[in-house]
Amino acid sequence: MTSNRNADISMKDTDISGISDRLRGAGLRPTRQRLSLAHLLFSKGNRHISAEALHEEALNADMSVSLATVYNTLHQFNEAGLLRAVAIDSAKTYFDTNTSHHHHFYIEDENRVVDVPASHINVTDLPSPPEGMEIARVDVIVRLREKS
Ligand SMILES: [Zn+2]
């Protein structure tokens, strides 16, 4: 008999080994804790999640892990290119499991991040970067609020 609960959170072995390889490539040991967090993160399709929300999910999945560890792990995954940090302001960062190039709407009243396809925003007339520098990427966050 198969359990739906397990089916929902299971990842393909190839995904897990892909994540292990990428962690190793970034100089990170694929520990059980890192792989469990990766499993939680990536088994639900593309999403934007805060460290607090992932911590909550980890606790609900009976993982004993501190918020600080979740936070550090997310930043390590960001460094490894497994996800993309979307910094809304100095106090609020979301982690995006979709690492392809795109922009975001941020709905202020709901603390919600929504994807905007890269092709929908044209960024032109950028200033020349200082000598010896190049533009790595331009991320646009369009902040939304209810019409007053
Ligand atoms: Zn996104």
Q: Which CATH top level class of the largest domain fits?
A: Mainly Alpha
Strand content: 15-25%
Count of the domains: 2
SSE string, helix = H, strand = E? HHHEHHEEEEE
SS field, number of helical segments: 5
Distance between the termini: 55 Å
Low-pLDDT stretches:
1-10
Q: Find the CATH superfamily of the largest domain.
A: Winged helix-like DNA-binding domain superfamily/Winged helix DNA-binding domain
> Which oligomerization state do the chains in this entry correspond to?
single chain
Radius of gyration in whole Å, from Cα? 17 Å
If strands are numbered along the chain, what order do they take across the biggest sheet?
1-3-2
In the CATH hierarchy, the architecture of the largest domain is: Orthogonal Bundle
Mean pLDDT: 88
- Count of DSSP E strands? 6
Net shape: globular
Give the class from helix and strand content and strand pairing: alpha+beta
Small molecules bound: zinc ion
For this structure, the CATH topology of the largest domain is Arc Repressor Mutant, subunit A
